[in-house]
Amino acid sequence: MHAFYASLRNELARLAAQPKTRWFLAASLLLPLGLSLLSSRLQGGGGLSALLSGDPYLALLGGYTAFVLPLFLFMTAADQFPGEREEGTMVLTLLRPVSRAKIYGAKVAAAAVYTGLQLLLLAVVSLLCSLLLPGSAPAVLDPLSFFRAAVAAWAAMLAVGAVGAALVQLTGRATTGLALCLVLYGALKLLPLLLPGLSVWSLFSYTGWHALWLGDGVPAVRLWNLSLLLLAYSIIAYTGGLAIFNKKSF
Predict the structure, then answer these.
(1) DSSP code per residue over the chain
(2) Which residue range is the domain that position 135 belongs to?
(3) For the chain, how many structural domains are there in total?
(4) Less Cβ around it within 10 Å: N or C end of the chain?
């Protein structure tokens, strides 16, 4: 396990040095603050205030899991795999006395850590804003629910990240890999509008499943079944991505 943790520290440092990672983390700090300030100023008014009449955290978390975090995961995967191959750094990584399975696991885990960090920042800043900002919209959620929603959102993003890590390896360039992920994600997001029956089986239909964990309206059996579905997608995508990585020549 020492080799895995060493690889994970290396991948975390590599991602931390990239401007896009810092920009995404900064957005996770600033967006909830800005949305809470806007919500507090518009309380009691019309128009846009109607959209912010609920909890700003829920509105922001829904947008993050639908657009921001998938984009971050796809960009990160494109840089980690075909991007490093283009730059020639993947060969240096494979020269280390670490198995390909641990290298692949460290890359996926590093992306998961920064995804979780963004969700944690969203929850903490949103909770502080709801408690401290005068005149801000009253929080619909209790403090524990803030973090329960973040953990549920993180679980869904793990599955999306595993799919992205597998897909980008089907291409030879980072830009092509990112484009493939975005096109497929967009198509599967829109497909249920044409064929609603397929939404039950589409992983990307559950990016906002954190909403199902709030309150008592969803039966425990349904939550359990959806959890198993996400776990199955994660295992299949991770195993497929690892198989591609093991066979790929760099």
Answers:
(1) -HHHHHHHHHHHHHHHTSHHHHHHHHHHHHHHHHHHHHHHHHTT-STHHHHTSS-HHHHHHHHIIIIIHHHHHHHHHHIIIIIHHHHTHHHHHHTSSS-HHHHHHHHHHHHHHHHHHHHHHHHHHHHHHHHHSTTPPPPSS-HHHHHHHHHHHHHHHHHHHHHHHHHGGGSSSHHHHHHHHHHHHHHHHHHHHH-GGGGGT-GGGGTTGGGGGSSS-S-HHHHHHHHHHHHHHHHHHHHHHHHHHHH---
(2) 2-247
(3) 1
(4) N
pLDDT confidence bin for 49, thresholds 50/70/90: very low
State how far the alpha carbon of 38 is from the alpha carbons of 30, 64, 92, 117, in Å.
12, 18, 48, 24
Q: Are 136 and 36 in contact (CB under 8 A)?
A: yes
Residue 221 corresponds to which amino acid? V
Contact 241, 104 (CB under 8 A): yes
For the chain, what is the mean pLDDT?
85
pLDDT tens-digit map of 71-107:
999 999 999 999 998 988 898 888 888 999 999 999 9
b or e along 91-110 (b: 16 or more beta carbons within 10 Å of the residue's beta carbon)? eebeeeebeeebbbbbbbbb
The single-letter code of the amino acid at 195 is L
The whole-number pLDDT of residue 134 equals 60
In terms of Cα–Cα distance, which of 130, 117, 119, 97 is closest to 2? 97
